Amino acid sequence: MGKTGVILMNMGGPDSLEAVQPFLYNLFSDHDIIQIPRLIQKPVAYLISKVRAKKTMDYYRVMGGKSPQKEQTLDQADKLQRALGDRFKVVVALRYWHPFTEEALDKLFEEEIDKILLLPLYPQYSRTTTGSSFNEFYRRFKKRGKDIPVVEIRSYHDHPLFIKAWVESIKEHIPDYKDHYFLFSAHSLPEKIIKQGDPYKDQVEETVKLIMEYFPDQPHSISYQSKVGPVKWLEPMTEDMIVKLAEEGIKKLAVIPVAFVSEHSETLYELDIEYGKLAEEKGIESYRRVPTLRSHPLFIEALKDIVEKHA
């Protein structure tokens, strides 16, 4: 009898400064994110990646020359493998840099596999993240000619252990949390994607609602970050909310990256450096950012529970 394969899926990030431009090229070549005519997608992706590479490299220099997401995702996979035991084989498939989906399948099929679970490290579903990873998997998997059942885990934004992991992490990293205003920051999306039925915004709001049941009297709000381009995106933007809260007299701010489970440029550079500086300039005296869940024991338990229920 074969094992159940578990593919942990995430975005990935450049593992060196030299990888920044090809990483950006892969990102902007993704039709699930940028929907322009396919005939011009790759030339446009090349131009955008060329233009953005220098500035993006500056971000990664500040972060130590690379994204930590690969190492953190591999650690999550290792912890999950230990928790699940020998009936399962856990591999990592990153969308825009190594290890790619093709590499994950190579590793998976080193052993006999009789079922595959797709487990995205995006707690809230969006076609631009989880959907894109699923599409890439099926493009690669169908070329293998294997008749193996595949189970999609689309989201777990409301899983009790995922929620409790955030609650514990907030209390651990901000013991004086009662003195702070909670600002939940999630990656933004073009508004038109939400209007087309993408559940991401609703699921982010549900996650926050469930976390806040543990902090019933805590003032809080949700904001969105990392807008790119001229079209209308989900609002309010995180930087605008920081300014607004400062103007309202908030002096202590706790920022919670509720849609991220590993560190990357959006947390380490955007939230920590850019917005940290903005908060200081606007008179916020305590600006604290809760780390992403990474390999928090309760988060690994949540993933284990999800896998076992779908195995």
From TrEMBL:
<dbReference type="GO" id="GO:0005737">
    <property type="term" value="C:cytoplasm"/>
</dbReference>
<dbReference type="InterPro" id="IPR033644">
    <property type="entry name" value="Ferrochelatase_C"/>
</dbReference>
<comment type="function">
    <text>Catalyzes the ferrous insertion into protoporphyrin IX.</text>
</comment>
<dbReference type="GO" id="GO:0004325">
    <property type="term" value="F:ferrochelatase activity"/>
</dbReference>
<keyword id="KW-0408">Iron</keyword>
<dbReference type="InterPro" id="IPR001015">
    <property type="entry name" value="Ferrochelatase"/>
</dbReference>
<dbReference type="GO" id="GO:0006783">
    <property type="term" value="P:heme biosynthetic process"/>
</dbReference>
<keyword id="KW-0627">Porphyrin biosynthesis</keyword>
<dbReference type="InterPro" id="IPR033659">
    <property type="entry name" value="Ferrochelatase_N"/>
</dbReference>
<comment type="pathway">
    <text>Porphyrin-containing compound metabolism; protoheme biosynthesis; protoheme from protoporphyrin-IX: step 1/1.</text>
</comment>
<protein>
    <recommendedName>
        <fullName>Ferrochelatase</fullName>
        <ecNumber>4.98.1.1</ecNumber>
    </recommendedName>
</protein>
<dbReference type="GO" id="GO:0046872">
    <property type="term" value="F:metal ion binding"/>
</dbReference>
<keyword id="KW-0963">Cytoplasm</keyword>
<feature type="binding site">
    <location>
        <position position="187"/>
    </location>
    <ligand>
        <name>Fe(2+)</name>
    </ligand>
</feature>
<feature type="binding site">
    <location>
        <position position="266"/>
    </location>
    <ligand>
        <name>Fe(2+)</name>
    </ligand>
</feature>
<comment type="similarity">
    <text>Belongs to the ferrochelatase family.</text>
</comment>
<keyword id="KW-0456">Lyase</keyword>
<dbReference type="Pfam" id="PF00762">
    <property type="entry name" value="Ferrochelatase"/>
</dbReference>
<dbReference type="InterPro" id="IPR019772">
    <property type="entry name" value="Ferrochelatase_AS"/>
</dbReference>
<keyword id="KW-0479">Metal-binding</keyword>
<keyword id="KW-0350">Heme biosynthesis</keyword>
